[in-house]
Amino acid sequence: MRSLLCLLLFFVGMTTVRAETLEFGNVMEQTQWHLERGTFTCGLVQTIADYGRAELVQRGDGRLGFSVHARPGLYEGQMTRVALVTAPWQSPAQPRVLTMSQGAVGLPVKLDSEAARQVMLGFQGGRFTEFSYPADSQPSIRVFISSLGFRAALGKLQKCVSALPSAKFSDYAKTEVHFASGSYRLGKAGREHIERLAGYLKTYGGVKLIIAVGNTDNVGFATFNYRLGERRARSVADFLRAQGVGVPIEVISHGESRPADLNSTAVGRAHNRRVTITLER
Fold this sequence. Notes:
Layout: H1 2-11, E1 17-18, E2 21-24, E3 34-37, E4 41-48, E5 52-59, E6 64-70, E7 79-85, E8 96-102, E9 109-111, H2 113-124, E10 128-133, E11 140-145, H3 150-162, H4 169-172, E12 174-178, H5 188-204, E13 209-215, H6 222-242, E14 249-255, H7 266-272, E15 274-280
Parallel strand pairs: 2-11, 13-14
Antiparallel strand pairs: 1-2, 3-4, 4-5, 5-6, 6-9, 7-8, 7-10, 10-11, 12-15, 13-15
């Protein structure tokens, strides 16, 4: 009963102005961790009442990330203090400052892998995580991310991570997508290949340049095929950018000059109508 009373007192007045601070957090019955699975990551998400959400994300190789996403107008790129604080039912102690971090307007505040690991360990020990920052147009803001239910949710996260697919660089260093005769439009299979590649690039990074090389069969004139190869490569580059890939992309056309197979058969011509996507680190 005493623990519950302390928790209620801790959160009374959340999302209201107290002196010069605006505070956000969840009461006990609101606190939930939801498991979300991506192609290469698993994550635990806590919605923060009236503020936004917090995400703890783990890749298949074990690397952690932690981020806090604010609703529009509540975060404008300020330098943010990230600290572990005692839960209301724990003995009071000084906050343990983990790091100072800064995002951009409209983007989440993200922590590096080591700070994210410290946040996870803090949650396991029952401590809350506090994000705090000044605001010019409103009171200073403090956001509390609760550890309630985290231990149970962590087991689900670990099970999810253990089932993630392999993500070796060698598996994605070179990808091919193929096209219909005379076309530079991506088909369903091609889009799926590129979506998977984009997921890898956004999750793991480390790539400095993407080279997209367009090729054709020998049907039609060589000058037409050169332009067609370029359009194919550009359609791949445009689709990668539409998926949120920010790595520089170099577009090249070889037209019909570098066949991968014989042009004398339908199967060979199909192999030659391709874009090869190469990643450079």
